[in-house]
Amino acid sequence: MSRPAAAVQRVIKAYDVRGLVGEEIDEQFVSEVGAAFARLVRDSARQVAIGHDMRASSPTLAEAFASGVVAQGLDVVHIGLASTDQLYFASGLLDCPGAMFTASHNPAAYNGIKLCRAGAKPVGKDTGLTTISDEVIAGVPDHNGPSGAVSHRDVLADYGEFLRSLVDIGGQRTLRVAVDAGNGMAGHTTPAVLGPISSVELSPLFFELDGTFPNHEANPLDPANLVDLQAYVLETGADIGLAFDGDADRCFVVDERGKAVSPSAVTALVAARELQREIGATIIHNLITSRAVPELVAERGGTAVRSRVGHSYIKGLMAETGAIFGGEHSAHYYFRDFWGADSGMLAALHVLAALGEQDRPLSDMMADYQRYEASGEINFTVADAPAVVDAVLAAYGSRVHGIDHLDGVTVDLGDGSWFNLRMSNTEPLLRLNVEARTPEGVQEIVDEVAGHVPSATKEPA
After folding, report:
1. Catalytic residue among 31, 58, 91, 104
2. Confidence (pTM)
3. 8 A C-beta contact, residue 369 and residue 292
4. Lower CB count within 10 Å: N or C terminus of the chain?
5. The domain 373-460 is classified under which CATH number: 3.30.310.50, 3.55.10.10, 2.60.40.2310, 3.30.230.10?
6. Quick one: which of 401, 393, 461 has its CA closest to 431?
7. Which residues form the Alpha-D-phosphohexomutase alpha/beta/alpha domain (predicted)?
8. Using CA atoms, how far apart are residues 233 and 240, in angstroms rounded to an integer?
9. Mean of the pLDDT values across residues 229-249?
10. Residue 175 and residue 275: Cα distance in Å, rounded?
């Protein structure tokens, strides 16, 4: 059956499929998406791996998607409960396309699908989602050939073993590691990955799988959702705290003082470790990570390549350049050894290995990678984003040392200060990121930019 274009395009977004269950996404809709995805990949694939998170709607939607796939003649391998990076692992291990049912950090009423081709290669707007959207809108006729078969395979233990094989964690001091799973999929994967490590004493927080998120939103990018972990680190005397989002593909770090560690500093640390084993390698960083990242990469003999924000751009550059590692400000970390895909758990293993092989506390160790102060991402609700950007640029005038338009507008103010303004692809938001030498310098720039936003509604990303 055909569907209204506006309704489909509201749910099939630039990077994934996401919407309100029952209103925007239901079993019939995801079955049609499954069928369109099967048609997209069937020239090069015989089966599709499907995983799902702990949301109440996820198992049913995953089954509906599978029905659409098998109706097109492809087989389905259900891996069951999984983190998104566990689904990527299955896609790499089985060399087949994959579909992960999750709405990541969105509230319980939402669900969605993250899609990839064989080897965890991303499917985005320009690499398949537009085709899927067009076919769902048009209502492509059913396939007339034989249906595919359905099987089940548990890859959780294999996933944990594979991640541990990529990071040397032997012979290190014992670390007490507090982990806030936020009632998301890290409660499922953390015991399988960190549990077998003898030098890790695990202190779990909110490991019960619960898609209603009874304790806090599973979005550690919002500082309010780190408060419980920060208190827990101090309460347990942990050496480090790790917080994961709902589908556990992003990892945020808290030091032994209960202070959040910048994802840019984590990017720099992992980059330095990867450059130790492959001198001269390429490191990808998006344009709103700290300038400390390309500086440290250059100092260690690597090549830093700057990217637009978004996993499809990072993964594309990873493949194009053969980069060994890539990092984003949002705590997505990408590894060549993980099919170029992102894994917060693998990044966590690198941080644990670095901490365990020396005697300093985490705060001291991470100070080596922290050179600037940052605002974090600030969203402004605006009616006319281009007009606001023009007003800001006009106000800065001759104070601008450099400007580029790789993603929105990035303005270099000299003395290590810069800001980026970019429009959201899906919401009436203008996103601001600022970096400067001091907290006062950051605040001065934030205030000046905000002064040009009519009736500014400001909130953290």
Report:
1. 104
2. 0.93
3. yes
4. N
5. 3.30.310.50
6. 461
7. 11-132, 158-258, 268-372
8. 7
9. 97
10. 25
Residues near 11 by beta carbon (within 8 Å), at least 6 away in sequence: 17, 18, 19, 24, 25, 29, 112
Q: Which CATH architecture has domain 263-367?
A: 3-Layer(aba) Sandwich (3.40)
- Beta pairing partners, 113: 17, 101
Helix axis angle, 186-194 relative to 156-166, nearest 10°?
60
Q: Please check whether the two domains, 158-257 and 263-367, share a CATH topology.
A: yes
pLDDT tens across 129-178, in order?
Answer: 999 999 999 998 777 789 999 999 999 999 999 999 999 987 789 999 99
Domain ranges of the chain: 5-153, 158-257, 263-367, 373-460
76-123 pLDDT per residue, tens: 999 999 999 999 999 999 999 999 999 998 889 999 999 999 999 999
C-alpha closest to that of 53 among 213, 242, 224, 162: 213
Per CATH, the architecture of 158-257 is what?
Answer: 3-Layer(aba) Sandwich (3.40)
The predicted-structure confidence for 348-396, as pLDDT tens digits, reads as follows 999 999 999 999 999 999 999 999 999 988 999 988 889 999 999 999 9
151 as an active site residue: the answer is: no
Residue whose C-alpha is closest to residue 335's, from 379, 180, 348, 461? 348
Q: Regarding the domain with residue range 5-153, which homologous superfamily does it belong to in the CATH classification?
A: Alpha-D-Glucose-1,6-Bisphosphate, subunit A, domain 3 (3.40.120.10)
Give Dmax over CA atoms of the chain in angstroms: 68
